[in-house]
């Protein structure tokens, strides 16, 4: 039996990221009106979950991560009140976002949350996962930069998140570094370790062009939830393009419940015209995927390059070598300055 | 020379590192280590280092406070039990140095406000957090030159240096540090971010401090103030080092710091542990010197 046939009839829950991960690609500058326009189109296309926050999630408004034109609560309230069927979700990274902010997001209408930690630090999330459950939210434990932990390690971390109360555990390829075999091994290890009632998800970035293939590999290994982004609007070379993924699912006989043509229209008519730069695998986003660097670092590295004269690619490779992880955006300028000094490019910073 | 006798509560990373710092002090002597698990490695190590130990929590220490002449206690347990620990020991006239995020006493960053606390003979001072100790001196160095409307700090800690208590209670760390950036750092609004990085070999603690000044920043005076403040912190944390900056971008001042520890209990990458225990020790030493000189006298608080 071919793999294509084996997925026939499988149900996949889609989760759109263009109003959260996509904020990174827009330097956090999507306005409330624009968010409502995108979200209502996705809601109308049948997308069941739509993530809406600052790119770095709750608590994200900062000098480190940039200031959005509106607060998270304003975005969530404006979008949630217009949804016919979609649930609004948020991102919360402990150490940045707090339970107070989760309460405020819930009050504004959020009903689902990705509680995200680095793939080895799940034990920083017990308070937040338990609190999300107490609020009655659909709760996901989100293991970022998952290529930096092996399958057994990911399974152990996922087990912790499950023990705190997570309904779903995600393998998150923040660097767009993984290949289908890497995804399959991690999802399978989680499936083996977790309670059968706990769902597994996959969040991809398209830096090596593997977003769709990796998502399919995840489903083959037991994942039932997939993050993507209409037209790929997200950090780095973008997320798994959701309309493309939906089309592939349809070809393979999987059920997503979305209207493919409406999703295509949203991509073409709304999202693409919003883009500041064409999202594609280019020199720097390919470097992210190749060197295993957090996708959000892309635009920060370009700015540090302008300021110091060190190329963005060299900065990204050095950040990968130094094993910098999500949240360490301050270390991009710091690293660029240190490299500039070493190269005698003084006086630029 | 006579020394002030101390008790350490909590036998984890911080409590253990404190033994080394206090044993080197000319005015402090570590006498008791208090834990809750008789089989804990921390208590065994404390015994090997010559301390008396109890595994029955603070209640196991109380009967010995007066006979052993304990005058200062360091609490490195958790925010949830600190208030009770403090109440019980304060009633016996023991001054508390709080290394938990409980912060029931005034917040202390030695080069900024230790003198005031000693003058007031505070019976409980709080050391905020490692990130607070590493960054608030810089925020204060800017705010003492000109108004800071907003300050934000980012602390990167190596995974191996962050104990289970901090991990399970990250929000308390965030709230306490953010509030201290305002109350001690002098910023109108403060925000703290923490990142735990598991890289091997472990990365040295890094801290980035951003300040938004209310008016155009005076580059020369602010840079001079920051360098002077770094010198003050280096008196008790020699590995406190400026890596890059200050850089000025409009009203934004950015400073990139590194904190290498002394490598007492955990290796040198764990500067976060060191800056906390070193600041607590420095605080205790200031009180101890004043007590020994007869300038201040600790008073038991009344039982309520």
Summary tags:
heterodimer; A: 349 residues; alpha/beta; TIM Barrel; Helicase, Ruva Protein, domain 3; 2 domains; eight-stranded parallel barrel; 15 helices; globular; B: 304 residues; Rossmann fold; Dihydrodipicolinate Reductase, domain 2; six-stranded parallel beta sheet; five-stranded mixed beta sheet; 26% strand
Characterization of this structure:
The complex is a heterodimer of chains A (349) and B (304). Chain A is 45% helix and 12% strand. By secondary structure, chain A is α/β, with parallel strands linked by helices. Chain A has 2 domains: 3-274, TIM Barrel (Alpha-Beta Barrel); 296-342, Helicase, Ruva Protein, domain 3 (Orthogonal Bundle), CATH 1.10.8.60. Chain A has an 8-stranded parallel barrel with strand order 1-2-3-4-5-6-7-8, surrounded by 6 helices. In chain A, helix 6 links the parallel strand 4 (112-118) and strand 5. The mean pLDDT of chain A is 95. By secondary structure, chain B is an alpha/beta fold. Chain B folds into 2 domains: 4-127 and 277-292, NAD(P)-binding Rossmann-like Domain (Rossmann fold), CATH 3.40.50.720; 130-270, Dihydrodipicolinate Reductase, domain 2 (2-Layer Sandwich). Chain B has helices at residues 13-24, 41-48, 58-61, 79-90, 110-119, 130-143, 164-168, 170-183, 219-234, 271-292, and strands at 4-9, 28-34, 52-54, 70-75, 95-98, 124-126, 148-158, 187-197, 205-213, 240-249, 252-259. In chain B, the strands form 2 sheets. In chain B, strands 3-2-1-4-5-6 form a 6-stranded parallel beta sheet, with helices on both faces. Chain B has a 5-stranded mixed beta sheet with strand order 8-7-9-11-10. Chain B is globular and about 60 Å long.
